[in-house]
């Protein structure tokens, strides 16, 4: 690898997480996106009220006030923007908002709205007070976004009829509605859109105790017998994400049923998740192979992204978008201008000893 290659690599070493539309492959056991099985079973597991919604205490408290106040005034609630990683409960919250307001809910997403006309069709068919959930709102087309500004502010849209010089804009009154927008990062939204939300909530990753409550709650609904240590073991491997916690619970349940008496204990969870190669910190095979290559082949780095990708036999995008965000979040890997660097925690996690400090200047404060 030449120095120029290193520079090219280093130039994008700091590329923001989630900057590319492609998410993690849905089939990945620890992927945060919904796969087809999730979609089928999640409906049964979704909390139906704010009181049932686990964790996110600030968001719950603030949202509770927004909804109560609107109910007392007899108006629709302010538009709500939810930001946060996939699987943290944004869709669930939109359903709760509709339920708590006693309003119908319509669900759509940014990528489904490519033309302003698509949005006009949805908006003009809303009922009074309806909650419109717009997932991945940052991926809407620009003309649709501009139509949305007016709809959010004045409950009005201009529908353009005809083309060229003969085109006319026909104003259309809309019934009052509540828009619930969801995005992986609020920073991706243009400020004029962001400013039109009356209430913005940032959803954090869940801590292990909260995830344990999610696992216990889901186990109850799925009628799976789980002991406290079993639930804790699953929670600790769920990457701060309820969707992953629910999915791991289902896989452990299968194992408990086939290989034991159906009860999810710590031992069963450990053995089941060893089969699925999800380790005690929630890393899967891909995450571990990236870390292992970084440590064993490159002495902990710094190494360029392309080189690292070749070493693990994956596409560069897979390493960057699928494996790295979690490794960075866990403090196992750092993206530096000089390339990827393993942290002391990465050595410890894989049970390896870092090389002597003198051999790796710059790595451990050298
Ligand atoms: P998002 O829309 O952010 O991708 P979802 O709302 O679809 O996430 O949530 C994914 C799954 O995780 C749902 O099945 C839901 O049951 C579960 N879930 C999410 N948040 C919570 C929570 N706070 N308490 C309990 N279950 C939750």
What are the salient characteristics of this protein?
Helicase, Ruva Protein, domain 3, Arc Repressor Mutant, subunit A, 3 domains, binds adenosine-5'-diphosphate, two-stranded antiparallel ribbon, 5-stranded parallel β-sheet, 15 helices, 12% strand, alpha/beta, single chain, 366 residues, Rossmann fold
Write out the CATH superfamily name of the largest domain.
Answer: P-loop containing nucleotide triphosphate hydrolases
**Number of separate domains:** 3
Roughly how many Å apart are the termini?
A: 24 Å
Strand residue content: 5-15%
Q: How many strands appear in the DSSP assignment?
A: 9
At the fold tier of CATH, the topology name of the largest domain is Rossmann fold
Unreliable spans: 1-26
Ligand set: adenosine-5'-diphosphate
Q: What class do helices, strands and sheet pairing give?
A: alpha/beta
Mean pLDDT: 88
**Global morphology:** globular
State the CATH class of the largest domain: Alpha Beta
Biggest sheet: strands side by side, in what order? Answer: 2-3-6-1-7
- Which value, in Å, is the CA radius of gyration? 24 Å
The CATH architecture name of the largest domain reads 3-Layer(aba) Sandwich
